[in-house]
Specification:
Four copies of one chain form a homotetramer. Chain A folds into two domains: about 110 residues, Urease, subunit C, domain 1 (Roll), CATH 2.30.40; about 325 residues, Metal-dependent hydrolases (TIM Barrel). Chain A is built from twelve helices and 19 strands. In chain A, helix 3 packs parallel to helix 4 and helix 7 runs parallel beside helix 8. The radius of gyration of chain A is 21 Å and the shape is globular. Chains A and D meet through strand 2, strand 3, helix 8 and helix 12 of A and strand 2, strand 3, helix 8 and helix 12 of D. Strand 3 of chain A pairs antiparallel with strand 3 of chain D, so a sheet runs across the interface.
């Protein structure tokens, strides 16, 4: 035995019990009472929750967008992830319009190469689906890219038409892959945006007005309808409101158990009033879809508790206020869309969700580890604490209080959307494939140690 | 008094009673017991139902489509209408891509000029909405064109994008007009059609496969969502199935009483098995949306009875089997889409609907006269039997039995989709603005007598 | 011609037009332009709306309840009705526990005898359904009693069990009659009431707490379910909230077009805060079901506009504050349940509903005249303005402003729940079977002139 | 280590992996790769699924009913359970009308005493809730009775009124207990039954006619409504159809995550046609609620897969055809209600559910072990495979084929409702608290070894 995690309360997506975990090499090999050390490194987990490392399958590291590039690359972003209890990462690789998928994948693998500190994979966002690109899809799946993405918004940039979405859904079904969709009606967003700007409504608050929840709800319904017709699995990412989620729920009630919904901490905690913060501070929260009314926070927590929203990811897409968000000083449409969050997810969800009785520990583990591991083809290597699985393990100290602040977080940006929020409970040790990479508030792993994960087929959670 | 209609049972959208109707000039001036003739022409209505003449607000006369032209023009089509109990007509005028609305309207007014035998107006189908066309809309409304149309299908021909639909809805709201929408997801239809043809599935039955009900339901939801966001009235035409109608019903349940649905006799009586008729006879029923499963017939009758589908129009769009439908002999996608029905609607709805207890006489009058008169800005001049209204009146003999047949109908085509159906109850006299134009099975009016109706604003029914 | 109503705007449940109405004897015999007087009395209706007299089919006149008797009898109550634009009245006759239906009917006919000033009929509230009572039902229908009632609340007084309700529904279906139901779960109300009283919560405001909307919603669902199983028509009276109405709407959406809902002006205008009025004034509003949150007002208006709530009655059940409501000074459960309203319904609905754009004139006429006439077997004798119908006609002056006050109303009680409300539009002339019985703010008819109406079978509106 | 279960595939409600399990005394102490035997008994699990022993929390052993007593007592019933993969048992203890809860519990504990072979507890079915009985409830909870039951059917026998149900729900909430409800409208069932019998419709098939699904749906809605009002947890047992389940689903969609539904194998596999089996064989399937249409089978499987029906119990209530079911030879209402199934549940659900792809192994474990362990206060002692839990473990051989037959099953009755059904996959070893009690097709435990479980509070699954 190389490492023994001793005396913690192990939490899985269904169970909870006190035991020691024994790790040999990169894997868990034993779970039991009073495991003997015999020279192994002992990590004391007394009083801690021991959970499977979280998976973040919705991020945009080192991504060009709106004339700039997201401020976290695979090094800074993954270090932040590790320090926040995340051990597996799936980033969105973007096809260039006119470009091939192979090119896109090569570019993104290059971004991670030599920098990654935790294990990672890629989704492939398809922006231009011609016959040649269609022909590339099986090769992508062979490379372990078993999830694709479509944007129904960002007209003239990433936005695809319904024919593309439908064909991609059909192909994904045939290949055992999953389609993720950004659901907003880009035509209407584009119209409303231009109108607002032309009428001089340029402040960050008008970002929300340009993307009312009806455009999200409409696109969600459309994506679900096309997936139903294509008999394909679908995951609607970053869902923000009841009007949208009900379409996923209705599909599931009809027996379509491969239709899924994802949400993010920002939609659980923040709300549309944030855009009114003075001095352009509202720009911090400019992301798409935008923040909604306060009542949606409560709704989303309940849906998470009910298992209707099966994954809880970050949509980490960080920009600096100083020189990036500020590009839209005079025009909200030029504010780069996105918010940091790769590091704060686990503590926020633990403190605000589990700690406040909104969700159970089991639901937290399911939404951040087990469900995404299944859906993205990494289970049971990732996503659970079980004999034979990778020893990707996080210790949460439920009593540790931390005041969140950009000044102490590892995310490479100059603000934290939750600045000043005190959380109770925080990840204190992160283990990746048997190696302690975060402890004593320090990242202690090495740059480049993260491995590419060749993912398997989509599996319903 | 010029004409007295004597002893019939007058039916309105809410009431029913026996009385005489007195007409002076073109209008109803008196309703009472034992009106004295004093030299007026007396039309004996004993034992008859006396209803407001039906309005057909969904037709395509003299319309170019798929390399041919619909086989009924304003003369033959309107004579057939009159012989079938219809006294008011609103046809779809189509903007050419690249053309102006004024040009389109001038063209269509020319088609009616000198031919019309009943009163008529036009909707304007917008296919290409640029800034210039937007600027034409108020003028169109001033001309009495208070309803527009968008096609969400027919990719590359009439199909508009969501931005166009949304803008048109907003403009219509401002102008007091109504947007009619053909709701099918044209992107998916186009894909499925090309695939079926490429796989050799070219027979008429594959027309139905190329337009599954999910594409109608999706587009209906989308149109309703955009209308809700635009706070605009909307009418979804030719609805065929529960999956679609529920979106209209849900909107109304949310209090959106300006969201409406229309259906047609073909969706109430015919079903998808018709496409399997041998020897290319299935082509008779090739229309869009296509016929559905039998269970939808019953559903639609119930919705009509419940007042959820507020109008019942024909979508009359006639082609000959001999030289027009046959264009698609080897390719269902080349079969001109459409079905005749302008003449058979009233007898079919009376016999199959009222006669079989599915709907009341009041519902029949509401769906074919009063509701469209309100929605299309012609009430109370048209659409009711009331003092001061145009004397557009039809007598139905509830005992008259007729076997429907192309050989005896006045529609200018070589087939009848209901060939051989015996109806019980038939219009026996049609009066337009006080003039008897149909009696003794003969059209007795004169060509060119029909007048253009400058329609007023949309009004909820 | 005996009477001519000249120059008014006639409003029916579907139409609206300017014309004169000619009356001979008790009936309308002519509707037309410029009817000649020839010695007839001419009622000038210029600038007025001329509507079919309203029907009030939910009242409790001269009814023993809680140790007292409602303060309006058939004389005072019907005079108030006439002065408020109501020309037809159906009262609830109550079976005594242990008594026969014949006895009950004889008692109630006696109450009206010699006092009635407008035409009237009775529903029969069944409180004790044994085999003998079952055997009486056909005779009741022959007497023109084609509607029954069950109370699901008032445990130990009127409350019936589900077996009774189910059997009554089955019998009503066989006999062409309609069952009205007071839907509240009486078991739970009884428990909550006793608990509140025992805990010292005796003020009027606790009346609302003793009957939460869930008990109404539950009982509504149950009544609808039993009616569906019995395949019988059902009318849920005095509906107050979305939680209940949705069960009626869902039934109708399933095609059960004989399931109906009624509401009353108090649920459209008043709300639960009224119970907090100081000095026991909250007792004025103690009725069952109780007033709800403000948001339900808006919901109910929308449902009325949509035609989902088909009738709008008063549930007039008047008690004096001075010596009747005061019985419950120390115990809300002893406050006689009920509110006056037979006189104020038409002006309130016209002013707050039509005047404020919430419903159309057609909807108002449908909900107060045409629909109840059909459902309660009196159409087309009552409920419409049509040749051959009884000349029950009301003129509304849309410009007349009146401040509602118990001091000027004819209702025989010492308060008005809408005291001080100014309405715009008021009935100024009431005609019953051709006789003007109210004009110049005076009742001018004669006591005892009202006739018993032998009602026919239930008909769907 | 006393026992090692070697090389099997361990399945939990969320995970699945290959490992050995080590047992010391009565508990699991180790899970790992290549555990060393060191003298422990080794149970070879190669190629087997190793699951937490199933929990059967819905049975009626040794229960008086309709003049007879169920044919399985705690000895035969629990032996059958053990041979079928069930290791924990919660039986329904019934209060006598007029009797106390203490008496009832003493009686039922006596039935188990000296006979039980697996661990067990009791629910308490309350049939007569007066003040004294209310006062007993806390004591019952202290005894480990943390679940109660109400029957809404069986009029004049077990049926309670709504006041009783509501009070019990409130008390249960206060005490941390769960109310189980048999949801059928007993008033209507009683009426329909008497009518059918009086009309000579006495054959078993009329049992189904006497309890249409509407009576189940109505009562389900009512129970849910009362639980919502009481803010109490509720479990609706033996659900059979969509009409009922939708009420549970709608409650959960409103955020009421303590509203639960249970179903049973008979409702997943059998259907109403079974009642038509000749020669009174239909009596085998006489149970309440009755079997439904085939389409409900598919619906229920989907709901199970979706996690909407959280538990899958047997409602084992066995009677012999020879001398018990035959009591109703001439009157279906005298056929004792019930069906055997305690032994066949695990193999049937594995073969028909998991084997045919309808549900996952995880869902099977959740529905039969983990969820009931939580809801009935036994988690994590029971219901999971985890270090520290009782070693209640079952090995399923997925390849073993067995033809189900009364002649080979251990259930003490003369028929099997699934006679002749071949299942693929069967429990081959059952371990209870570390002791192998079933292997080689034999029960090898000892009578009386089963222990009473003092259960803790209700916990949401």
């Amino acid at each position: 035995m190389d490492v023994i995690i001793k005396g913690g309360t192990i939490v899985t997506a269904s169970d909870q019990y006190v035991a020691d975990i024994g790790v040999e090499g990169e894997q868990i090999t034993r779970i039991g009472q009073s495991l003997r050390a015999n020279g192994a490194r002992v990590v004391d987990a007394t009083g801690m929750y021991v959970i499977p490392g979280a998976i973040d399958a919705h991020t945009h590291l080192d991504m060009p967008f709106g004339g700039t590039v997201t401020s976290d690359d695979f090094e800074t972003g993954q270090i932040a992830a590790a320090c926040g209890g995340t051990t597996t990462h799936v980033d969105y690789c973007l096809q260039s319009v006119g470009g091939t998928l192979h090119e896109a994948l090569a570019t993104w693998r290059g971004k991670a190469q030599g920098k990654a500190v935790i294990d990672y994979g890629f989704h492939l966002a398809v922006t231009d689906l011609n016959a040649n690109v269609m022909a590339e899809l099986p090769a992508m799946v062979n490379e372990g890219i078993t999830s694709f993405k479509c944007f129904m918004a960002y007209k003239g940039v990433f936005q695809i038409d319904d024919a593309t979405l439908f064909q991609l859904l059909e192909q994904a079904r045939e290949l055992g892959a999953l389609v993720n969709v950004h659901a907003e009606n880009g035509d209407v967003v584009d119209l409303l945006t231009k109108r607002l700007i032309s009428e001089g409504m340029t402040a960050p608050r008008y970002h929300a007005a340009s993307r009312p929840l009806e455009v999200e709800a409409e696109a969600t319904h459309r994506a679900v309808a096309l997936a139903e017709l294509a008999r394909a699995p679908l995951n609607v990412v970053h869902m923000t409101c009841e009007a949208s989620v009900r379409h996923v729920n209705e599909a599931r009630a009809r027996g379509l158990l491969d239709i899924h919904g994802e949400t993010c901490p920002q939609y659980l905690l923040l709300n549309v009033d944030q855009y009114d913060e003075p001095d352009f501070q509202g720009a911090k929260y400019v992301m798409s879809p935008p923040l909604r009314d306060r009542k949606e926070n409560a709704f989303l927590w309940r849906q998470l508790a009910a298992g209707n929203l099966e994954t809880l990811m970050t949509d980490h897409c960080s920009f600096r206020m100083s020189d990036q968000k500020s590009l839209g000083k005079d025009n909200f449409a030029k504010i780069p869309n996105g918010i940091p969050g790769i590091e704060t997810r686990v503590p926020i969800v633990f403190s605000e969700g589990v700690g406040k009785g909104r969700i159970s520990l089991q639901t937290m583990v399911a939404a951040m580890s087990t469900n995404p591991a299944r859906m993205y083809g990494m289970f049971p290597k990732k996503g659970c604490i079980a004999v034979g699985s990778d020893a990707d393990i996080v210790l949460i100290d439920p009593k540790r209080r931390v005041v969140l602040s950009a000044s102490t977080l590892h995310q490479h940006t100059d603000y934290c959307p939750y600045e000043g929020l005190e959380v109770e409970g925080y990840p204190v040790v992160t283990i990746s494939r048997g190696e302690v990479i975060y402890e004593n508030d320090q990242f202690v792993g090495s740059k480049g140690r993260g491995k590419y994960i060749k993912r398997g087929q989509y599996q319903a959670p």
